[in-house]
């Protein structure tokens, strides 16, 4: 784990990849965001 914690509706989630910064934008893994929104790996996330 990366130690990076992000929050969705005041609930903490730990990311499994580091975000990257490119052209002054921050990119997060869509799978981390999807899991935080309640989607399941293998069912909703392929």
Q: Any idea what the radius of gyration is?
A: 11 Å
Main sheet properties:
2 strands, antiparallel
Q: What best-fitting shape do the alpha-carbon axes yield?
A: globular
Q: Approximately how much beta-strand content do the residues carry?
A: 25-35%
Given the structure, what is the number of helices? 1
- The unreliable regions are none
Distance between the termini: 20 Å
Keyphrases for this structure?
single chain; 46 residues; alpha+beta; two-stranded antiparallel sheet; two-stranded antiparallel ribbon; 30% strand
Please, could you describe this protein's structure?
It is a single chain. By secondary structure, the chain is of the alpha+beta class. It is built from one helix and four strands. The chain has a two-stranded antiparallel sheet with strand order 1-2. A two-stranded antiparallel ribbon has the order 3-4. A hairpin with a 2-residue loop joins β1 (5-8) and β2 (11-14). The longest helix has 7 residues, at 30-36. The chain starts with a strand and ends in a 10-residue tail after the last helix. The model has no long low-confidence stretch (mean pLDDT 87).
């Amino acid at each position: 784990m990366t130690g990076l914690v992000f929050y969705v509706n005041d609930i903490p989630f730990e990311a499994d990849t580091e975000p990257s910064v490119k052209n002054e934008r921050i990119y997060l893994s869509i799978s981390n965001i999807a899991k935080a929104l309640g989607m399941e790996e293998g069912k909703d996330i392929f």
